[in-house]
Amino acid sequence: MQPMRIAIFTHEFPALSETFVLNQVTGLLDQGHEVVVCANGQRDEPMTHADVVDYGLAERTILLDLPRNPLMRILKGTGLACRRLWREGPRALLRCLDARRHGRFATSLRLLYWGERLAGQGSFDVILAHFGPLGQTAARL
Predict the structure, then answer these.
(1) How far is it, in rounded angstroms, from Cα 67 to Cα 18?
(2) Among 29, 61, 62, 64, who pairs with 37 as Cys (CB 3.0-4.6 Å)?
(3) What 8-state DSSP symbol labels residue 125?
(4) pTM of the predicted model, to two decimals?
């Protein structure tokens, strides 16, 4: 079987209580696949599972970095929007900000921020999302 490029979306990574996500990531890596973990944030825990270090998962993880403060989100989002406009043109920017099509995913600027974080990653053979709302985000991306 050909190695695949796989994106796994999860809320927080790594999370000690979510060993099923960690086991899935390490199992896919053991099978020779390339795995990128996309997480909304990193859980603030005093300990981490040894596999996170052993497999170098911090380097394979992309964190959303979406400011909680609405004003900061808009200010930083303005810079991201300008960068996207410069790199990809108005069509790509307008697609991720289309509130009629994407609703809260666009108005919260979530798609804009994820688009910036995933820029340059190329395509994935498989996109897997843990938990329903992340599936909606991944599908819209």
Answers:
(1) 24
(2) 61
(3) S
(4) 0.89
CA–CA separation, 93 and 84 (whole Å): 6
79-88 confidence digits (pLDDT tens):
999 988 888 8
| Distance (Å, whole) CA 49 – CA 14 | 8
CA distance to 25, 46, 68, per residue, from 126 (Å)? 13, 32, 30
Per-residue pLDDT tens over the stretch 106-133 = 999 999 999 999 988 999 999 999 988 8
CB atoms within 10 A of CB 30: 9
Which residue shows structure tokens 């498989």? 126
Burial track 117-136 (b if 16+ CB lie within 10 A, e otherwise): bbeeeeebeebbbbeeebee
The closest of 57, 42, 65, 53 to 118, measured between CA atoms, is 65
